[in-house]
Amino acid sequence: MAKPLKIQEVENPTEPDYEVFLSFRGPDTRNDIADYLYTSLIDASIRAYRDDEELRVGEEIGPKLLQAIKQSKISIPIFSKNYAESKWCLMELVQMVECNKKWGQEILPIFYDVAPSEVRNQTGTYGKDIQSHKDKQLYTDETIQDWKAALNTVGKLTGWELKDRRKGEFTKDVVQELLIKLKRNYLTVSSLVEMDDQVNKIMEVIGEQTTETMIIGIYGMGGVGKTTLATIVYDKLLADFDHCCFLSNVRDTEIVSLQNQLISNVLRNKYLSITNIDEGVTEIKQRLSCKKVILVIDDVNHQTQLDALVGVGERRFGRGSKVIITTRNQELLKGVDFQLKLTGMDLDHSLKLFSRHAFRRDFPRAEYASLSNKAVRICSGLPLALKTIGSLLNGEGKEAWEAMLKQLETIPDQEVKRKLNISFEALTTQQKEIFLDVCCFFIGFDVRIVTHMWDSCKFFPGRSLVVLERRSLIEIREGNRLWVHDQLRDLGHDIVREKANLKPEEQSRVWDHKEAIDVLETEEGRKNVEAIRVRFDHQFQDLIEKEESVRLSNLRYLQVDCGGLDEGNVQHNPSTNWFQRNPIILPKLRWLSWQNFPIFFKFTKRSLKELVILDLSRSEITDEWEGWNDLKEAKNLKVLNLTGCRNLCRTPDFSDHENLEQLVLEKCSELVQVDRSIGKLKELVLLNLKYCRKLQMLPDEMEELEALRELLVDGTSITNIPEWKGMEKLETLSASDCRLLSKCNLAGCSTSLLYLDLSDSEISEFPSGNFGSLVELHLSGSNIQELPNSIEKMKNLKVLMILDCNLEKLPRAIGMLKKLEEINASMCDCLCGEIPSEIRNLSSLRILSLSDTGISNIPKLPESMTDLCLLGNQHMRCPDLSNLLNLRDLRLELRYQTPSHPAPSLDWIGSLTKLEHLCLGCGGLVTLPPDFNLLSKLRKLVLLGCNQERLPRLPQNLSYFEMRGCSISILNISYLERLSELEVSHCEQLIEIQGLERSKNLQSLRLERLPLLVKLPDLTGLNNLWRLRICKCPKLVEVRGQLESLESLGLMGCESLERLPDRLSFKHIEELNVSGCGKLEEIQGLEVSENLNALSVQNLPLLEKLPDLTNAKELEYLVLWHCPRLVEVRGRLKSLKTLSIHGCGSLRQFSDPSSLKKLQLLDIKECEELEEILESDEYRDWKKAGKLSAGSSVGRVLKSRRGDPV
């Protein structure tokens, strides 16, 4: 009788006792590959569990074995001919798959003497064995099906095939790859070094006053952990900033390139092109001065870098920006707000870091304790040395340790590079070549692209990269980007130079432009150089033009920066085939990167035969370009990048490039046709057609792209995605912003898709198919009305984005998506009724946003939630959120307008002790719970429409408090000592704000539409207040106090206002807006305002004069509207760019009109006397200024220039 096999359950695995679990069929492999592998793992200090399935009896997997499977980080089934004959092997395999699904445990199969397809499809002996189990009728159909599913799942995974390889070499490769995978699993950025104390020091200096601009400098010798510390602080602060930039490798990057990267990252504009440093400084000042930025400038070594990027002492970024500088030279940090010196780690932390890399745990193995302590002392507390040397010794025996430490002891402590060089010398020739390539050229590059060149050069990158990463000489970071520590990068540079006897012409790699020109001028240099980066300038052109031919016989990588090419460059050269007349011969060239490639150049065919990567992005090439014919010689081409080639209307014939793996045509704005020959690209993995706006159709031959994994068609004009049955490997399909896309058939690729984006399209029905592998689904802005019940098959889905679409309900099957982490269904107007109660089953859900929907009822939510946004209508009932103890960010806005919906009870809110941000808006809410002040971690609080007459005591750690539309009459903030921002608006009953004068940390104060507010306390003590905005407080008579830090002041619509703050408050003022204050007769203090940049004075009927503005040397914008008594504007306004004067009928004179040399925009209306005198010679320069275009306004000009206007 068939019976189910029993498996004893264990809890979620804790810290693994084993690192690797081996599953194998004893008679097939015990005395063969299994024994080789197990012994090699133990010798490499990898904790491995080896199961002998033949020794077991009974019908159950016991708890010890089950624990071994579940607590291992990696499981390795060794598939041999008779593996499926063993029920135990099959049971183990089912458990591996279960652990993979539940906890992400990795499975790496070895295909010993069978093909993956036999395992996957149960053919050959596997099919016979499964049928045999079935025929015996000892096991249920469900058990048999579980076995088949597990075989199918694992058979699809990437692993190792033995085939005809020698077992010793094969085992060695497996162990090497396991070592790097186990190391990656163990280490994280935050755990690389124990830096809590240093992080805390910086965070304490920054404090919670995020509105204060600050520059922080971190200095210390190379390898001490400066970059790591900056990264940790950057990551901690990132959430508070809309604009961010991390400039790494500053030492070796040209300043103009750094400026381009800074501006592009902050403005999210990929293709800005700064051509010189001065232009870059101007652009940074103009574009970023109103942006709140978090910026890291890593490894600065020249003052010119800081002058060009941040200008220490200047204000180039918006209020609240944070700049972190790392350098080895403390002298460069003069003028920064805070300096921190990093020194070596103490012995305890050093031993911990060393052990993590040498043993993959926090302490050494007992038999290596003495040797480990010795190694730690040699490393002198330097994290990089501890990491690199620990990695070098990982898996080695005692003899190797002793020999290595003996060699290290001979090197003085201060000679860090010599110690690191030992790791370099231990590499093979190919590994050294790759390491030096990365150090000199490829930091930040996608390793998947660079690998093509190394493969072509037979550097064996697969294994070499594993060794380099295992030994901590390189890292492969997020996005598959290569990274090398700056100390190791410098080591690589020094090795290249020393090997060449410090002679550039003997160097194999040249990365400096000046040296590159020198090298290219000598025959010896042309012969020796293998990789070079050069600028396309007149020096380079002259050098090539004067030669009959240039032969670079060993060059494999050529990068030409053509960013400065202009009409002058073009005219300097003949318009004929330049390379044909003066050919450059590059017989070994593998990679040509020449953005803005000049079309009058011509390849030589001999230079293309070995080419594998070609980047001609942003070039002027066309369909008729002669180079297409020459490119047919590049039979081995793997990567072709034509991004931004705006004159390209049709792609070339791809018939000669059947090895192509990546084709990038992004932002080819005129592209209308992809050639049908694309179907011949059987190896194509990536096709990028993003923002080819005129592309309306994809060829039918796309179906033949059987290797394609990533298809990007965002922003195109395609109308249909047909069923491509051949794309069985497609993992990413991104078709966002395809406004005409209405049909999409994904049946052919649904099982393999991991990422699907159909947002902002016309898709109205979700495509059919089995999307069991899908991880992210984006449907925002589409016409989708419902999600199918088949969504239950999306067992791997983590992100569901359905904003602003026509969705009417969420299916109950959504509760089956155990891995779902984020749902955003905001702005779905048609989404009504109740959220399915099954949502409580989503144990991984962290983020839920349901703003502006028709949802009426929220069920109990899972305790895993950390971020929740509920903005409801009058029908939504307030949920009980008392179980959400992990909630950090809550936005709850509900409307109660009918008797059937009384004001909600929020008694549960005090239990949410982890809350950091809270926005509460519940119409009709009369009371807040008394334990509200117990939310000790709350930093930001927004109260909207609260009807309570007096607030309870608020959490005293608040740094931001906003109150809008509330009914209280007195607001007491005297106890909120950490408050830095206060906004109070639309509170019609408010008559007094108590304790305002005690808010010593207050930096920003906004008061708006407070009709009963009569007075404010003296604000003299608010030494940190830099922004003050008071709007439409009609009974307010005066603003008292001396505000010496004030930079931005706005007083609008205060009809009773008679007195401004003390004149010394204007000393540092940058922006001043005074309007609609009918009783104000004068504005005193502007005569001392040296930093004033923008002045707007409007609707002041009693104002007769302004102070002399001569000292306002930075004044660029001046607006004077409807001041009928104003007679004269005094002062030399040398920096003024925009002048707008309306309705000032008495104004007849500027004391020095000739000083307005920089005037660019002039806007004068309803000023009869002034318009008359404009005809005089004295005002002739004004006529050169442009007029504001119709429909524009000075307010809009000011806002675009200065950001948030006061």
Helices and strands in order:
Layout: E1 6-7, E2 20-23, H1 26-29, H2 33-43, E3 48-50, E4 60-61, H3 63-71, E5 74-79, H4 87-103, E6 106-107, E7 110-111, H5 116-121, H6 124-136, H7 141-155, E8 160-161, H8 167-186, H9 196-206, E9 214-219, H10 226-237, E10 243-247, H11 255-267, H12 277-288, E11 293-300, H13 303-309, E12 322-327, E13 338-341, H14 347-358, H15 369-379, H16 383-393, H17 398-409, H18 416-425, H19 429-442, H20 447-456, H21 461-470, E14 475-477, E15 481-483, H22 486-499, E16 509-510, H23 513-520, H24 523-528, E17 531-535, H25 538-545, E18 550-551, E19 557-561, H26 567-572, H27 578-581, E20 584-585, E21 591-594, E22 613-615, H28 627-630, E23 639-641, E24 662-664, E25 686-688, E26 710-712, E27 720-721, E28 732-734, E29 743-744, E30 755-757, E31 776-778, E32 799-801, E33 822-824, E34 832-834, E35 847-851, E36 854-857, E37 867-871, E38 889-894, E39 917-922, E40 940-944, E41 960-964, E42 970-972, E43 981-985, E44 992-994, E45 1004-1008, E46 1027-1031, E47 1048-1052, E48 1071-1075, E49 1094-1098, E50 1117-1121, E51 1128-1129, E52 1138-1142, ...
Parallel strand pairs: 1-4, 2-3, 2-5, 5-6, 5-7, 7-8, 9-12, 9-13, 10-11, 11-12, 16-17, 17-19, 18-20, 19-21, 21-22, 22-23, 23-24, 24-25, 25-26, 26-28, 27-29, 28-30, 30-31, 31-32, 32-33, 33-35, 34-36, 35-37, 37-38, 38-39, 39-40, 40-41, 41-43, 42-44, 43-45, 45-46, 46-47, 47-48, 48-49, 49-50, ...
Antiparallel strand pairs: 14-15
Helix pairs in contact: 2-8, 4-7, 8-21, 11-12, 11-13, 14-15, 14-16, 15-17, 16-18, 19-21, 19-22
